[in-house]
Amino acid sequence: EVQLLESGGGLVQPGGSLRLSCATSGFTFDTFAMSWVRQAPGKGLDWVSSISGGGGNRYYADSVRGRFTISRDNSKNTLYLQMNSLRADDTAIYYCAKAVRGYYYYMDVWGTGTTVTVSS
Amino acid sequence: DIQLTQSPSFLSASVGDRVTITCRASQATSSFLAWYQQKPGKAPKLLIYATSTLHSGVPSRFSGSGSGTEFTLTISSLQPEDFATYYCQQQIFGPGTKVDIK
């Protein structure tokens, strides 16, 4: 069974940093693109970033480019999101998601999410 | 940047109804489209990708079509478990359509 488990969320002050992790199992991690998607309280889905299976290609939403960095450790089957210069509007549930084989952005398996709250 | 809009934003329907949700892109693109279903407090579920490919395990009452700037999700006969919010996606997501019980 494919499983994704996010961790690393929490309360952080504006301007602070957090590193999210997504531990995966049940599939050949390095052959699938992975993504982070967030959802602010009461709002819709917001694509954040995606990374290719090998890690060589990375894509970011305009709202996070230059502040967030997506990465992966294929030896540990783990996806990461380094978030710097956090702002109040980054407050959200952050989901990691696995892509459909052969695609970047179609996400067929999702984690349960980790909550990030940016507040003083 | 391409923007996605969905219509309607809210839909009230009855069990057994045929339901169609439209997603429009701000500019024509060769990119395909995905549709997701999300229920309160849960992660989204993939329904359709590449515009019309039904994801494994998704009931056949769900179908997708479209091209260019206009795409549709159709539920042929709405079931009680289908009341949820639906999102289209082409890298970014549309704003969502909430389907509620009439």
Topology:
The complex is a heterodimer of chains A (120) and B (102).
Chain A: E1 3-7, E2 10-12, E3 18-25, E4 34-39, E5 45-51, E6 58-60, E7 68-73, E8 78-83, E9 92-99, E10 107-110, E11 114-118
Chain B: E1 4-7, E2 10-13, E3 19-25, E4 34-38, E5 45-49, E6 53-54, E7 62-67, E8 70-75, E9 85-90, E10 92-93, E11 97-101
Parallel strand pairs in B: 2-11
Antiparallel strand pairs in B: 1-3, 3-8, 4-5, 4-9, 5-6, 7-8, 9-10, 9-11
Q: What does this protein structure show overall?
A:
The complex is a heterodimer of chains A (120) and B (102). The mean pLDDT of chain A is 97. Chain A has strands at 3-7, 10-12, 18-25, 34-39, 45-51, 58-60, 68-73, 78-83, 92-99, 107-110, 114-118. In chain A, a hairpin with a 7-residue loop joins β9 (92-99) and β10. Chain A contains no helices and eleven strands. Helices cover 0% and strands 51% of the residues of chain A. In chain A, strands 2, 4, 5, 6, 9, 10 and 11 form a seven-stranded mixed beta sheet that branches. In chain A, strands 1-3-8-7 form a four-stranded antiparallel beta sheet, with no helix packed on it. Chain A has 120 residues and is mostly beta strands. The termini of chain A are far apart. By secondary structure, chain B is mainly β. Helices cover 0% and strands 51% of the residues of chain B. Chain B has no helices and eleven strands. Chain B has strands spanning 4-7, 10-13, 19-25, 34-38, 45-49, 53-54, 62-67, 70-75, 85-90, 92-93, 97-101. The relative contact order of chain B is 0.35. The model of chain B has no long low-confidence stretch (mean pLDDT 95). Chains A and B meet through β5 and β10 of A and β4, β5, β9 and β10 of B.
| Amount of beta strand of chain B | over 45%
Major sheet description of chain A: 7 strands, mixed
The proportion of residues forming helix of chain B, as a percent range, comes to under 10%
Summing up helix and strand content along with how strands pair, one would put the structural category of chain A as mainly beta
Q: H/E element string of chain A? A: EEEEEEEEEEE
Strand tally of chain B is 11
SSE order of chain B, one letter for each helix or strand: EEEEEEEEEEE
Give the largest interface: A-B, 21 and 22 residues
**Multimeric organization:** heterodimer
Number of helices of chain B: 0
Overall morphology of chain B = globular
Residue stretches of chain A low in confidence (pLDDT < 50, at least 5 long) are none
Biggest sheet of chain B, open or closed, and with what strands and sense? Answer: 7 strands, mixed
Number of helices of chain A: 0
Poorly predicted ranges of chain B: none
User: What helical percentage do the residues of chain A reach?
Assistant: under 10%
Radius of gyration of chain A: 13 Å
Strand content of chain A: over 45%
Number of E-state strands of chain A = 11
* Helix-and-strand structural type of chain B: mainly beta
Gross morphology of chain A: globular
